[in-house]
């Protein structure tokens, strides 16, 4: 059984990105820039935002952090995003979700210019993923999962994959990316009938549900590859995935742990998308 080490893989990707940024700095005198916007003091958001800013520093990327009060008006937030859309130092804009209730998340997401939508949350980028276009920003978590599977030489073409969860940021784009890799994809969700039987058919199981220990050993085929996207805080304060790791790891051929699996890959792919945006802006993507 292989533990799929997302932490190490994300560090490898960060190294590759850093080398590329070092070369770009030498060649152009410029580096990619990411703006991260946080509204209010949600503790989980703070951890994610700080970790993204720290990763920017680690790879030599320029970053700007905007911490806005929880009662900031929607108009003020739109104004900031529009300013960042025009800012030449900024190649990627990320607004940390969730936003307070008085702000329309969809409107904010759609205000980010498509060229700077490095989270890949805009309808346009989701549509491009669905069309199988390579030249778009793939949502970071699904993109990181595909990258992890590829780097661990998991055969995707012709594989039976079951994705549990149908959110716009994980389940749906992941299903599309897997189809683009020629997997046969079943998407399960809260209304799915006989979910366990469907999961049991899968060569690759990907759980993005948000329920601790949702996938148990009896649901998984012997030799399956299991990817756990879930991040659930247990009563003991520790982080748990959607997969009951101890039992499932005895049957799986390969499995991601939580923490140290999909999570670190998400941030690595955010860096990759921001670098891609910079190269596009500088018109360097065609030259490489
Ligand atoms: P979400 O709440 O938007 O979606 C959850 C999905 O699970 C829904 O589509 C729903 O239909 C399905 N679901 C809920 N109950 C179910 C049930 N009983 N049976 C079958 N399906 C059920 O969540 P999300 O944003 O997609 O995130 C899912 C999980 O992944 C969360 O734990 C989240 O914290 C985590 N997450 C991790 C990362 C990362 O970087 N590792 C990134 C995003 C989300």
Automatic annotation (TrEMBL):
Which Gene3D superfamilies does the protein's record reference? Leucine Dehydrogenase, chain A, domain 1, NAD(P)-binding Rossmann-like Domain
The family classification in the record reads:
Belongs to the tetrahydrofolate dehydrogenase/cyclohydrolase family.
* Oligomeric and partner information: Homodimer.
In Swiss-Prot or TrEMBL terms, this protein is called Bifunctional protein FolD
Gene transcribed to yield this protein:
folD
Q: Where is the Tetrahydrofolate dehydrogenase/cyclohydrolase NAD(P)-binding domain?
A: 139-280
Instruction: Kindly state which keywords UniProt assigns to this record, in alphabetical order.
Output: Amino-acid biosynthesis, Histidine biosynthesis, Hydrolase, Methionine biosynthesis, Multifunctional enzyme, NADP, One-carbon metabolism, Oxidoreductase, Purine biosynthesis
> What NCBIfam families would the database entry show?
PRK10792.1, PRK14186.1
* Described purpose of this protein according to its UniProt entry: Catalyzes the oxidation of 5,10-methylenetetrahydrofolate to 5,10-methenyltetrahydrofolate and then the hydrolysis of 5,10-methenyltetrahydrofolate to 10-formyltetrahydrofolate.
Q: Which molecular function terms from Gene Ontology are attached?
A: methenyltetrahydrofolate cyclohydrolase activity; methylenetetrahydrofolate dehydrogenase (NADP+) activity
SUPFAM superfamilies for the chain: Aminoacid dehydrogenase-like, N-terminal domain, NAD(P)-binding Rossmann-fold domains
């Amino acid at each position: 059984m292989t533990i799929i080490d997302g932490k190490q893989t994300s560090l490898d990707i960060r190294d590759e990105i850093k080398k590329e940024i070092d070369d770009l700095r030498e060649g152009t005198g410029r580096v990619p820039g990411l703006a991260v916007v946080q509204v209010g003091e949600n503790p989980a958001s703070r951890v994610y935002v700080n970790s993204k800013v720290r990763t920017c520093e680690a790879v030599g990327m320029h970053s700007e952090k905007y911490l806005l009060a929880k009662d900031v008006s929607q108009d003020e937030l739109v104004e900031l995003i529009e300013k960042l859309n025009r800012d030449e130092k900024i190649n990627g804009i990320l607004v940390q979700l969730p936003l307070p209730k008085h702000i329309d998340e969809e409107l904010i997401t759609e205000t980010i210019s498509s060229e700077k939508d490095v989270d890949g949350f805009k309808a346009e980028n989701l549509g491009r993923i669905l069309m199988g276009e390579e030249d778009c920003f793939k949502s970071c978590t699904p993109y990181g999962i595909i990258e992890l599977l590829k780097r661990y030489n998991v055969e995707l073409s012709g594989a039976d994959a079951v994705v549990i969860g149908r959110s716009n940021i994980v389940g749906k784009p992941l299903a599309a990316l897997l189809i683009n890799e020629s997997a046969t994809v079943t998407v399960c969700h809260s209304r799915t009938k006989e979910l366990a039987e469907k999961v049991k058919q899968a060569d690759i199981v990907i759980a993005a549900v948000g329920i601790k220990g949702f996938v148990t050993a009896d649901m998984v085929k012997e030799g399956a590859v299991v990817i756990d996207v879930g991040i659930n805080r247990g009563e003991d304060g520790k982080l748990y995935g959607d997969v009951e790791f101890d039992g499932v790891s005895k049957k799986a051929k390969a499995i991601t742990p939580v923490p140290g699996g999909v999570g670190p890959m998400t941030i690595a792919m955010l860096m990759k998308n921001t670098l891609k945006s910079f190269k596009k802006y500088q018109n360097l993507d065609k030259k490489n």
